[in-house]
Amino acid sequence: MKHGMDRRTLLLGGLAAGMMAQGGVAMAAPFTSRRIAMTVRGAATGPGRDVLLIPGLASGPGIWTGAIGAVPGWRFHLVHVRGFAGLAAEANANGPLLTPIADEIARYVAAAGLKRPAIVGHSMGGTLAMLLGLKGLARRVMVVDMLPAGAAMVGGTANGLGFLADQLSGYFTGTAAGRRYLAQMVAQAPGAQGSDPEVIANALRDLANVDLGPQLPRLTAPLEVVYAIGSDAAQAAAITSRFRADYAPAKGVALKAIGPSGHMVMGDQPARFNAALREFLIV
C-alpha cells in the first residue's frame, strides 16, 4: 500500500462514506497564536529565501521533513494547525477554520518580517496557500494535490456538497459510528495521529463549502500545481483533465503530475517531489 492515502479518503472521503455509515527569524516578540504553532528550520543563504510550508488535513509539519533536508539554502517556516497531529485545538475547536487560519498565517508573515515568501501547501494547506496568495503575500505559490474547490476532490461542487458536509460534521462528532469511522481514517493517515475529530470535521465542512476557482484570475503570484496520478493510464488522464480544467482561470499556471502516487506525494515520490520543489523555489 502506498505511504499516502487516496486523495478522496484522506481529504473528503467521509463525504461519501461517512453519510453511509521554525536559523531563526527576528521578531519584536515570540509569535503566539491559538490557531497555529510555527517552527523555523534551515538557514537561508541569501535574501528572499523564506518558504512557508503548510500541511494538509489532520497532518503536522513532519510531512515536510524529507523535503527540508533535500532542499538546503532556504529558511522553512512550518505551520502546525492546532487540533491536528497532537496539538490541542484551542481556538480551532469550534466554528470556521480556513479563513481564520489563513489570517493567522498572514499575521505571522507580518510579525516575522517576511517579504513575500514562497508558499507551499499540501491538500487543505494548498487551499490555505491560495488564500494567502490572494492576499498578495506570496512570491510564488505551490499547491500539492488540491483542486480550487474542496468538494471537487470527491467529484462534487461546493453548492451540492455543502449541506452534506454540514451533516457530516455532526455525524463525525455526534455519533458512535461517525467517531469510529473518523478514528479509522485518522489512524491510516500519515502524521495524523493525535488529531482532534471535531477540528477535522469542521475542516471538512469548510473545504466542502469553498471554491476558489472564480478568484484565481486575481492571483498575481506565479502558481504551480503538483498533483498525484496513479499507474492506471485512463484514470491518470481523467485526473489531469480535471486539474487542467479547474485551474484554467489561473494566469500562467504550471501543472505537474507526479506518479504513481497517492495523496501524500512527498512521501510516495520523495525524489521527484523534492526535485519539483527545488525547481519551483529557484525560478
Q: What is the CATH T-level topology?
A: Rossmann fold
Low-confidence stretches: 1-5, 7-27, 156-164
Number of domains: 1
**What is the H-and-E element order?**
HHEEHEHEHEHHHEHEHH
Individual helix count: 11
Fourth-tier CATH superfamily name: Alpha/Beta hydrolase fold, catalytic domain
Total number of β-strand segments?
A: 7
Q: Biggest sheet: strands, sense, closure?
A: 7 strands, mixed
Mean pLDDT: 84
Using only C-alpha atoms, the radius of gyration works out to: 18 Å
Strand order of the largest sheet: 1-3-2-4-5-6-7
Q: What is the overall silhouette?
A: globular
Please describe the structure with a list of short key phrases separated by commas or semicolons.
283 residues, alpha/beta, Rossmann fold, 7-stranded mixed beta sheet, 11 helices, disordered N terminus
Mind explaining what this structure looks like?
The protein has 283 residues and is α/β, with parallel strands linked by helices. The chain has a single domain, classed as Alpha/Beta hydrolase fold, catalytic domain (Rossmann fold). It is 40% helix and 14% strand. It has eleven helices and seven strands. The protein has a seven-stranded mixed sheet, sandwiched between helices. Helix 5 links the parallel strand 4 and strand 5. The chain is globular and about 50 Å long.
Draw up the topology in text.
Layout lengths: L6 H4 L2 H5 L18 E6 L8 E5 L10 H6 L4 E7 L16 H14 L6 E5 L1 H11 L5 E5 L13 H17 L1 H13 L8 H13 L13 E6 L4 H14 L7 E5 L6 H4 L1 H13 L1
Parallel strand pairs: 2-3, 2-4, 4-5, 5-6, 6-7
Antiparallel strand pairs: 1-3
Helix pairs in contact: 4-5, 6-7, 6-8
